[in-house]
Amino acid sequence: MDPKSPWHDERVRRAASLAIDRKGINDAITLGYSKITGSTIPETFDFYWQPPLPAHDPAKAKQLLAEAGYPGGFDAGEFYCDASYSNVSEAVLDNFVTVGIRCRLRPLERAAFFDSYSHKKLKNILLSGSGAFGNAATA
């Protein structure tokens, strides 16, 4: 990771996580029907352990950003996503701007997103998902 990047500092990464209102996004986009797991491991796997759910604490996020040297926040550049996740990405960006992390959303068509992702052409931030819903064009 680039030592000149704000993301190099763990406090900035923790602040970004604390800024995201996962429950609020879940309630708004899927009416609360999605499951917030806090893990990439399926709960059906043997010896699965449910980690604590990620916290939402904008005040702590602002404090961490200030401690990291970004009391007014910072410009995080482009935020890339598969276009089918634009709604989630917009909600995350709204949470980020609340604590001072400013980004520009750049949704890409699925094939272009995965091509750019696999060839490491996307810089700054990206949101990737494994279970996009929709029709055959988005599956």
Give an account of the 3D structure.
The protein has 139 residues and is an alpha/beta fold. It has a single domain, classed as Dipeptide-binding Protein, domain 3, CATH 3.10.105.10. It has 5 helices and 3 strands. The protein has a 3-stranded parallel beta sheet with strand order 2-1-3.
What are the key terms here?
139 residues; alpha/beta; Dipeptide-binding Protein, domain 3; three-stranded parallel β-sheet
Question: TL;DR of this structure?
Answer:
With 139 residues, the chain is of the alpha/beta class. It contains five helices and three strands.
Total separate domains: 1
Radius of gyration: 16 Å
**What's the total number of strands?**
3
Strand order of the largest sheet: 2-1-3
SSE-based structural type: alpha/beta
Run of helices and strands? HHHEHEHE
Query: What ranges have pLDDT less than 50 throughout 5 or more consecutive residues?
Result: none
Q: Kindly report how far apart the N and C termini lie.
A: 32 Å
CATH superfamily caption: Dipeptide-binding Protein, Domain 3
Approximately how much beta-strand content do the residues carry? 5-15%
Write the layout of secondary structure elements.
Layout: H1 10-19, H2 22-30, H3 58-67, E1 74-82, H4 86-99, E2 101-108, H5 110-118, E3 125-127
Parallel strand pairs: 1-2, 1-3
Helix pairs in contact: 1-3
